[in-house]
Amino acid sequence: MFSSGVDASQDLSGTAGAVLIPTRFVWPHGGRRVFLIGSFTRWSDHLPMSPMEDRPTAFQAICNLTPGLHQYKFFVDGEWRHDENQPHMSGNYGIVNNLLLTNENNLVPSILSPGASGSREMDVDNETFRRTVNISGSSVQEAALRISEANIELFRNQISIFLLSNTAYDLLPDSGKVIALDVNLPVKQAFHILYEQEIPVAPLWDLHRGQFVGMLSALDFILILKELGNHGSNLTEEELETHTISAWKLVKRQRYGQLDVHGRPIERALVHAGPYDTLKDVTIKIIENEVATVPIIHSMSPDGSFPQLLHLASLSGILRCICRHFRHSSSSLPILQQPICNIPMGTWVTKIGEANRSPLAMLRPNASLGSALSLLVEARVSCIPIVDDDDVLLDTYSRSDITALAKDRAYAQIHLDKMTVHQAMQLAEDTNSAYGYSTEQRSQTCFRTETLQRVMERLSSPGVRRLIIVEATGYRVEGIISLSDLFKFLLG
């Protein structure tokens, strides 16, 4: 396959049935194998160019083109090249393509002879191009912007087709386990299980009702810790030892959920999917409901009883399927090779002249654990960068880190407003080390120049939910790209 170096574009070459203009393209800069690709080949067919007999360093190809504006590029010995001596333009993503305007009224449709001047390597020259290029009153730059938007829409359309053509059943691994918790388990024991199994979330099973009724996640533990720190709360550390999951869920609905007209808490229905729901449906459910996972549940009988839990679908699992499918598509979808700094997604540090960007939540290591937990909840983020006074990345604190405090009642040792984020991370690290869990650096970073394809592959790794964008030198935080950011871009 060809690696991408083109800015795939909308074909602005005219309407069907237009007069075709024979045009010769010449690559005069040497090479062993040279191909031509352009908007007139829909950026998919690579046309081989033939060596010229009287010019050993030149290659040529002849194409019949419709009148209008075309973009093209050369693929020389495995590398994308453009001819700097011919009209060219940079697109939105920094990719440079050559430009060609064919016009049956002022371009000679005949083929140049092999001995033609090197200044006219094809049937258009720079002066003619500058004098005549204008599309519906728009400048070439405006046309390039439209072409780049078409490139994005082409990519999104291909992603949508893939998601609609595959189902949640395709996410099921060949082997694995799915852990569900009984709603009558004590909360403390439930979080022990989450921590020991190294899982961030688990479905809840109600034996009396014979169905799955919800999910237990790190967010629940964060809210429980805030309840323990609230002197007006009825929930005490002693009660936490015997407090069941179902009892906690009732407290959660009363304090944080919606109430009906009579002031009674409304039970939120479990967000789930069936094995034959499309991947697009599953993706939209995850994003719209702001959840990390959606259980894939199969009903074994027509009336929906005896449900079978098959898998927990996540955005990272769906992204792995996407990456496998489009792994070798960079030539037909060149946006995959564009740097992420030129793609409209993620949250970036606000700079002068960029007031439209939303602020990026960051904390200093001496911030209180209570403020960190509040920020995780209020900002609706799963991770907060911990930075020094120069905004250099030191570590991250995420929702999943909080489950370490459930081990051996570590939560009983802390006071949210007195313990710092640094101390909380140290406590979690000590707890992990004592029980043989990984204590490696948890901050997943990338640079602004990394390609979209590389970022997608990184985010598809298990356990990675966001990448912190840092400067290549200095490690100052520049932004964050999360799984939800990426999918909101992919879905448009």
List the helices and strands and how they pair.
Elements: E1 21-27, E2 34-38, E3 47-48, E4 50-52, E5 55-65, E6 68-76, E7 79-81, E8 88-90, E9 96-102, H1 126-132, H2 140-165, E10 181-182, H3 187-196, E11 201-206, E12 211-217, H4 218-228, H5 237-242, H6 245-256, H7 279-288, E13 293-299, E14 307-314, H8 315-325, E15 347-348, H9 369-378, E16 383-387, E17 393-398, H10 421-434, E18 445-446, H11 452-459, E19 466-470, E20 477-482, H12 483-491
Parallel strand pairs: 10-11, 18-19
Antiparallel strand pairs: 1-5, 2-3, 2-6, 4-5, 6-7, 6-9, 8-9, 11-12, 13-14, 15-20, 16-17, 19-20
Task: Summarize this entry quickly.
With 492 residues, the chain is of the alpha+beta class. It has helices at residues 126-132, 140-165, 187-196, 218-228, 237-242, 245-256, 279-288, 315-325, 369-378, 421-434, 452-459, 483-491, and strands at residues 21-27, 34-38, 47-48, 50-52, 55-65, 68-76, 79-81, 88-90, 96-102, 181-182, 201-206, 211-217, 293-299, 307-314, 347-348, 383-387, 393-398, 445-446, 466-470, 477-482.
